[in-house]
Automatic annotation (TrEMBL):
Ranges annotated as spanning the membrane: 31-51, 72-91, 97-120, 132-152, 158-177, 198-217, 229-247, 290-307
Protein name according to UniProt: Multidrug resistance efflux transporter family protein
Keywords associated with the record: Membrane, Transmembrane, Transmembrane helix
Pfam family, one: EmrE
Amino acid sequence: MKPIIIGIIAAFFFAFTFVLNATMEAGGGSWIWSASLRYLFMIPFLLLIVISRKNLKPLLQEMNKNKRAWTLWSFIGFGLFYAPLCFAAAYSPGWLIAGTWQITIVAGTLLAPLFLITIHSNKGTTQLRGKIPVKSLMISFIILTGVSLMQLEHVATVSSSTLWFGFISVILAAFAYPLGNRKMMDICGGRLDAYRRVLGMTLASLPFWFVLSLYGLVTVGGPTASQSLQTLIVAISSGVIATVLFFKATDLVREDMQKLGAVEATQSMEVLFALAGEVLFLSIVLPSSLAIIGIFIVMLGMILHSFNSSKTKKSVMQLNA
């Protein structure tokens, strides 16, 4: 029960991203600063964690081996993930972005053929091209159904251009995030833990954030004190606290695939937390009954996908034994 509770608390802090991005947008803050300041603010905290674990030097050595790959995939995994997500806040409410964001599960399934899978057995080590798992893809359609129901209400209240700006931005982010992160995991080859990899990708993506910040200074001016403070809260809550809690929860159950699937499924709670936050702090009107049904269908799809993944991992472990 403890890992589940920790996972739910992590989802709560992850939801700050969607709520505060919506708050900053409503207050006139630019998405440019919501995106770039988060990663700039994350660096000191991540540095503190990595240095305290005496892991900074190995990280810098690893990054120096393949600078171009680190820069490219960090730009895709972080830059093309978070900038579009913040941009979407100008066109869609936070709860809708949080719900649509769950399409990243679908994206991860569709990206499988781009990666090699290493299989260890008594006969040796074999690398096979990943295949799109049919069962996972079918479950993903449940998530897509829920997202479609949520979007239907939004379609009736906004122009087509506004709808597509918000929707396409989240779709881009949903594919960029798993693609960039998986490519970096391949490049690192298990030599770096999650903390070092996140810090390394943040440092490698700095050129993009600096360019975006310069563009922001020229076009919209500097960030307000209020937006800077709120972005700092996002960096701490989502970038540091939520990530640490989620890693802790998964570490507690890493040997039990069924419990691991349950912990991963707790992240579907982000949608409910984001909705509750916007109702409380932005006084938004509650979504229609159709959208509420869509939210719960997305959550159901997430839960089914997590348990299916846990069974798959367990089968692979038994095969390799």
